# Entry
Amino acid sequence: MPGYELFGAEERKEVNDVLETGIMMRYGFDGPRKGIWKAKELEQAICDKLNVQYTQLASSGTAALTTAMAALGLGAGDEIIMPTFTFVASFESVFSVGATPVLVDVDDTLTLDPKAVEAAITPNTKAVMPVHMCGAMADLDALQAICKKHNLLLLEDACQSFGATYKGKALGSIGDAGTFSFDFVKTITCAEGGAIITNNKDVYTKCDGYTDHGHDHLGVDRGADLHPFIGYNYRISELHAAVGLAQIRKLDTFLSIQRRIKKIFKDALATVPGVTFRRLPDEAGDSATFLSFFLPEADQARKATANMKAAGLPAFYYYDNNWHYIRQWDHFKQGTVLTPFPPGLKQAMEIYKTKEFPASDSIISRNISTPINLSWSDAEVQERAEKLVNAVKSAL
Ligand SMILES: *Cc1c(COP(=O)(O)O)cnc(C)c1O
# Structure
């Protein structure tokens, strides 16, 4: 799953290029940098790899999401429909632009249930944000149709799914904008970093300025740049971008290792009666960072998770963890913030103090996701597949 497992001479070389000149900032210093532009190079590499027109790097996936929302014009009073199952960064970004997160149920794709999305639309809804969780895609045809019908923006949080595709198109490139994270545990890493991709030039130009104090990057030097709007500092550094540049060149290798190992695990588990798998709207496009499956009952899933951990296998039981599912997000449900929410948002958040999500509970409480590592040997994979089958069988 994470690119950090295959960190080596390639990453060191790219970082060294930057250390040689000492120019660690992505803008300016045209002379002393001696033609070394790692962030620019990585942006171009992402455009080429994902077949998308524009890429803007950012300091993190969270910053990328915030930037994308700002560039799409989302803010106070706007409702953004998002799933109950995601990483906390998805709603953090909604809050950071002052917009209102509207959480709706997930289905067996492990992200937005299109029926729940449609039922949640109000006159204030401005955007739908599917989160392509655990390496694979939302039901994008259905979600796109809803967005079109109701004139809503589609923002793809593809932070966990770099390199995955849907019907031949890169996740993130299908909506009005898409975001990626390159934090330390993502498919490819920059240590910390993120990106927004889009085919819309206006959205891109806004992302470019927003991540760098509103600079238009059209001056003869930074001091001569104009500021068409207020931005922030969400820049990536050259050192981080350098790591990402080496990593993106390994992406195809990462994906092929993941897909090979995942198939072995999935074929093994498919022999166990009662096990069902996450629905993949386009299985060929799965980046295969995780194998996600369901057991018939929550208790069985909890027990199987314990069995897997006891056997030394990594297992995520999101229903009980504090990061990915609404059930344990007490700070979100109570609206605990350091500075006050805008008045409308404070009111809108009141519902989460009591709102229940039984449909999501019945999905997430039966789900286990097991990450696929890049560094396992063939023998280890076989052994792990057997242990996985035994751990699950003995919970049923
Ligand atoms: C990792 C992640 C993010 C945020 O990325 P950071 O780079 O850690 O800020 C956003 N959304 C999802 C779904 C993620 O998994």
User: Anything to note?
Assistant: The chain has a mean pLDDT of 97. The first helix runs from residue 9 to 21. The two ends are 28 Å apart (CA to CA). The pocket of pyridoxal-5'-phosphate is lined by residues 60-62, 86-87, 89-90, 131, 157, 159-160, 181, 183, 194 (CB under 6 Å).
